[in-house]
Specification:
Helix content: 25-40%
Distance between the termini: 24 Å
CATH architecture: 3-Layer(aba) Sandwich
Structural class: alpha/beta
CATH topology: Carbamate kinase
Strand order of the largest sheet: 3-6-2-1-9-13-14-12
Order of helices and strands: EHHEHHEHEEHEEEHEEEEHHEHE
Radius of gyration: 17 Å
Bound molecules: adenosine-5'-diphosphate, magnesium ion
Low-confidence stretches: none
CATH superfamily: Acetylglutamate kinase-like
Length: 251
């Protein structure tokens, strides 16, 4: 099983509310179609179909109307992605975390993966997304695509995990780091920050923390640039490294 996240930074223009990058959507879908992988779970971020809405409608706390507007936005991106996948004959179906996940103080305490498991059994690719989710401590919280990857990694122990984003990997002093483990993280962390654009879920720093956490249980992952044509295909079909590998060992 392979877990692949496509960042909101890839599929959307994060600087402009509800703006899809159609060419990237098509390019990513084409590579997924070409790979012809079953046993694949896709997760996508919300990008400008969620972050600006959450910042506008949910900054004052829980409101059903704000939750709906945010959920509706990210669902519309999910639908666009699904339509593109289907137009390229990829057998995929959506899963909306609002319906199947519950949080407690931002942490996943319940995640009903029954439908997801059945989709995989039937060679259907589940497509999840960052979402607003009900939370027993806080009323609601934002569940990032990165957190979903972390949870599914622990639950399903995939053979590999890819985090497609809009940078070549983790950058330090202008260059890409090939490999990161916990001790190297200490060295690099002052340059690993949030996002250059609006990202209510913590940008690169939270992403790396999530991935280091799963690395501790022996699961390796890779952050790579999914805006460049060919990288998603390379990740899905070869053993070639395309970005920054995160694991516990030394290189
Ligand atoms: N050291 C770093 N290396 C690479 N990217 C970084 C680093 N520090 C912060 N970032 C930011 O993290 C962004 C990627 O995270 P994010 O915007 O959350 O993407 P996504 O939508 O794919 O989750 C990059 O575009 C960059 O602005
Ligand atoms: Mg992000």
């Amino acid at each position: 099983m392979i877990l692949l996240k496509i960042g909101g930074s890839v599929l959307t223009d994060k600087a402009r509310a509800s703006t899809v990058r159609k060419d990237k959507l098509r390019m990513v879908a084409r590579q997924i179609a070409d790979a012809k992988r079953s046993s694949l779970v896709l997760v996508h971020g919300a990008g400008s179909f969620g972050h600006p809405q959450a910042a506008t409608y949910l900054s004052k706390g829980l409101s059903a109307s704000g939750l709906w507007k945010t959920h509706r936005a990210v669902c519309s991106l999910n639908t666009k992605f699904l339509n593109e996948l289907h137009s390229q004959s990829v057998p995929a179906l959506p899963i909306h975390p609002l319906d199947s996940v519950a949080l407690d103080a931002g942490r996943i305490v319940h995640f009903d993966t029954t439908a997801l498991d059945l989709m995989l059994e039937n060679n259907i690719i589940p497509v999840l997304h960052g979402d607003i989710v009900m939370d027993s401590a806080d009323g609601f919280n934002i569940l990032s695509g990165d957190q979903i990857i972390g949870f599914l990694a622990r639950r399903m122990r995939p053979e590999k995990i890819g985090m497609g984003t809009d940078v070549d990997g983790i950058m330090y002093k202008g260059g890409k780091i090939g490999h990161l483990n916990a001790s190297e993280f200490e060295k690099y962390r002052k340059e690993i920050v949030g996002s250059s654009v609006i990202d209510v879920t913590g940008g690169m720093l939270r992403k790396v923390s999530e991935l280091l956490d799963i690395a501790k249980s022996g699961i390796q992952s890779e952050i790579f640039n999914a805006t460049r044509d060919g990288n998603v295909a390379k990740f899905l079909m070869s053993h070639q490294e395309v970005g920054t590998t995160i694991s516990m060992g030394a290189k």
